[in-house]
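User: Predict the complex with manganese (II) ion.
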Amino acid sequence: MKKNKFVVVGAGSSYTPAIVAVLLSRKDDLKLSEVVLYDIDAARVARTGQFCELYAREHAQDVPVSYTTDIETAFRGADFLFVQIRPGCNQQREKDEKIPLSHGILGQETCGLGGFSFALRCIPAILDIVGKAQEICPNAWILNYSNPEAMISEAIYRTYPNAKALCICDMPISQEETIADFLGIPHKDLTFKYFGLNHFGWFTNIYDKDGNDLLPALRERVLSETVSLVNAEAEEKHDNYWGEMYQHVIEGFQAYPEFLPLVYISYYYFHNEIVSHMDPNYTRANYVLDVREKVVFDDCERCIAAGTTKDSSLHTGVHGNYIVDIANAIINNTHERFIINTMNHGAIGNFNHDAVVEVPCYVSAGGIEPVSVGYIPQFHKSLMEAQKGYEKLAVEAALTGSYQKALQAVLLNRTVPSYAVGKAVLDELMEANKDYWPELK
Ligand code: G6P
Ligand code: MN
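Assistant: Here is the predicted structure with manganese (II) ion placed in the model:
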């Protein structure tokens, strides 16, 4: 029987213990032979790595788990690479968020110029990884969920059109689950239709098992009564980031009721309102560093010192499950449906065929089959075209080192009101990323 070696790339991340726990819990379905945690940061990967080794010893003794900073060792014989890198870690994310905010525009990990900054750090690193994979383990599936996925996917598919790479994001499924909970129907009994770009899309239909579209009734409710969507993962006490973001989904649906917006669309529909409520001195990166990373890393260190993971508070989230579900669909040829970033190639009939879009796809051992979305309305198409122009120029800037392309990309981003603001933010980000970005000239 063919067995599968899984490699987590960027394994020093706080998401890793949960992903490894899900992999091990599904080791039989996945025909799991081995898990290797790889990272360029020795200290970070030693921490999650030792934790996961201990965890495996206590939960799945037949699956060797190891960690390394050597890419050869990691990739040799690999069948699946889960890629989740963040060059510069959340320390650089903090700068991506704070610099634009200090100029009064959105400071966010993937949307607005924070996303541009992250893309310029991540694209060279990710292309290096995919390139090495083509040499060392050309048959491995590369499941990328490194951000900003919109631009990472453009860069990967453009540079390595034949790589077995799938670019995915957990936001659509996470929002589907939130909607399913709201409707009181199990997620597995619903089929969502969706189109867009990564962190920039809309749900068009929600079919139940009998083929009824539940979206029109949901629209009526949202337009006529007070509705609130509660995200199961909202971390109420420390901050209510996702709770507030889901409230904007309702407002966005009320404002433009044709389709139900993905949560990230709110940053564009309600840019000024959201920015005015953001704390420029304490952003999402600060929360992630102070709370999520601290909790996970403290727990890892405590368990390593105790020599056991028995009382670990580690839990599995949708993030870990989703990526493993996709690998499972490939391994077991299940033809399940997932929303994936893929070359359009006609899936959206009236949108650039040579651009990455985010659409439902059926996943099997042979790869993906995108669902045909048909023609989309003028409003959504035009929003997407500007956003895609921004994305393509940002990738172009990263690949060619052209400052002019970067400046063009910046002005196309909807969060940028003018040349002067855009240029000021770009120049400050460039300075803050001297050690990470390709040189722009
Ligand atoms: C969602 C998105 C990811 C993003 C994450 C941010 O899951 O799909 O692309 O990275 O949210 O979460 P954080 O808690 O780090 O702000
Ligand atoms: Mn995402």
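The chain has 16 helices and twelve strands.
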